[in-house]
Amino acid sequence: MKKIFILLASVMFSFMLSAEETPQKSERFYFFYSESCPHCHEAMPFVEELEKEFPNIEFKKLELSKAPENMAIFNKKVESLGIKGGGLPTFVFRNKYVVGFKKGVYEEKIRAMIGHPVKKEPRK
Predict the structure, then answer these.
(1) 98: left (phi over 0), alpha (psi -120 to 50) or beta
(2) 71-110 residue pLDDT tens
(3) What are the residue boundaries of the structural domains of the chain, listed by start?
(4) Longest CA span, the chain
(5) Whole-model pTM?
């Protein structure tokens, strides 16, 4: 009986330690996309990069063409933020948004929206 108690106590202790090490996701970043959108496909690796850069932010990647529940979330965000047109991809963080994506152009805008703009290297 004593061995079982020690085993259970050690398992519970290890769960408590791992929970403390897991970063808490305090905010959400929304990435609305469609499987048929080439700009969305171009943006996906960048969003995955952001997930690694900002582990304390929950990234919600919501595909719209096959999921009515995702479209409902998208429509609520578009309405609440006053987004005109509602094109894809759409990136939302807090009360800010960016619509569209072009590699090499939009990354800085999106990072600035999160609040951590990329520092530009000085020109030589």
Answers:
(1) beta
(2) 999 999 999 999 998 799 999 999 999 999 999 999 999 9
(3) 27-114
(4) 72
(5) 0.75
